[in-house]
Structures are given as C-alpha cells and as structure tokens.
Probable branched-chain-amino-acid aminotransferase (Aureimonas flava), 283 residues
Amino acid sequence: RIVYVNGAYHPEAEAKVSVFDRGFLFADAVYEVTAVIGGRLLDFPGHCARLRRSLAELDLPSPATDDEILAIHRELVARNALDLGHVYLTVTRGEADRDFAYPKAGTAPSLVMFTQARASIETPEAERGLRIASVPDLRWGRRDIKTVQLLYPSMAKMQAKRQGKDDAWFVENGEVTEGTSNNAYIVTREGTIRTRALGHDILHGITRAALMRVAGELDLRVEEKPFTVAEAQGAREAFITSAGAFVTPVVEIDGAAIGDGRPGPIARRLRAAYLETAIARAI
Ligand code: PMP
C-alpha cells in the first residue's frame, strides 16, 4: 500500500512520523474518513468542510488547501488501485518537544493519508442488521470535533463484542447520543425517523446530513429529538449512518429485538437511496 506523509508518497513500511508528533503524544489531531466506490469519493465536499471546522475549533494550522487535499485523495486512490473502501486522513499539530502548551506558531502540522480496501456495499451487517449494546457515554464534551481521541469508543466496541454484539450505542442522561463511530436513528411507531439534534454531544455526521436530504426526497418525516434505549426497543425500526457503513439497519438493542428483529423496510430504502444519490454525486 502507498501512504501519503507530508508531501510525499511512500510504501507503507517506509512511511514514518516522529515519536514527538503531538498526535501520538496528546491525541492532538483530527481526522476524516471518506468512502470510495468505483474509485470515486463520496460526499467529499462535506468531509472537507468538517475538516476545516475541526481544525478551526482546535486552532490547528491547515496543512493544505481543499484542492490539494482532493488531489492527494485521488492520487492515493489511483496509486493503490482502490475500487471500494475509504481514504483516511489525519492532521496533527506536528512535531514538538513534549509540552502541554502548544508549540509556538510556525510548527508545521503533519498530514498523513492512507487507503483501506473494504467490501463496504454488500456486507453481512447490512443483510442481517446490527445487534447493539448500550454503554454509558463517558467521552469528553466536544464530540462535534472529529479528534483521534478514540480510546473510549474503542473500549465500548470491545465491550459490545464481548457480549457477542456488533457495536455499542452511547447513553447519556438516559438518552442515546450516537454509536461508537456512527449516528443513531429510530423509526417510531408513527413512521417518523428520529435522531438526536446536532450540538457538542455528537459528531455532525456527513452521512447524517445526506440522510436528511434523502429522507426529504422520499417524503419521510424526520424529527431531531433524542430517544431512550426503551424507545429504541419499542421502535418499528432502527439504523445507523456513517461514511463506512452508509445506512445500516439495527435489529436489536440490549437483547430486545426491534420490530420483527429483521432489517426494516425504511432502513433498507434509505440505504439504497443514499447509495444511489451519493454514487451519482461522487467525484
Ligand atoms: N459519530 C461518530 C462518533 C463517528 O466517529 C462517526 C464516523 N466517523 C459518525 C458519527 C458518522 O460520521 P460520518 O457520517 O461523517 O462518517
């Protein structure tokens, strides 16, 4: 695999960053993941815009222009002959002597990008639906910034796996915030799609924004309102969205089947409609 590091392309075994990189020492870094289908990038402008916002929120210097970032994405896709999967991008505050205070202005940020091939469209998860375990949301208070501080989500995923489940949903003050790496939704008994409103407590998913548009086009009602685990268990359907999973049905939470325990028709329709429009707009 060919990996991009600060201006150059390297075979992955030769791609290196400093042990003093603040991404490594402080998780002082943000990231993006952009899906690739047929060698083209899905929702790229959205991912670029969110990267800009994450950088600004943390006073991280920008490593490159949007056009340069797009060109690197395309170059990596081409060099790795990537058909299906995603491009991962991280920007760190760069290399500096270890100190909690940010280094003085002028320290160059690090930009690292790589591809991962994934059979993302016809997955067993999309076919049979996900089983979810709820866990307390113990993450920090700025989940809207896409930082690489991913230890707790990783622990939550392992806790779900140990229970024989596929993934975890975080719960705060009795309400679901989001999944470990995805936004969470239910379809109520009335047929309304419900998902938590944007704020500091969840990531502003790029796939979530696309889902809202697609739902509108399908004349499905969406309300931005939180829900409890009990409400999810009593819902008609449930699903998640992310750049990696697109729209994937959820069929169980904390051992209780949702609906008839099989992927619901609305989730399936939304997955197909999302993929169709995202592929049509891919660049
Ligand atoms: N929430 C969290 C916590 C995530 O990590 C992700 C994926 N990175 C998402 C939601 C979904 O965001 P997107 O649709 O932009 O991939």
User: Anything to note?
Assistant: The chain is about 30% helix and 30% strand. The first helix runs from residue 22 to 26. The radius of gyration is 19 Å. The chain has a mean pLDDT of 97.
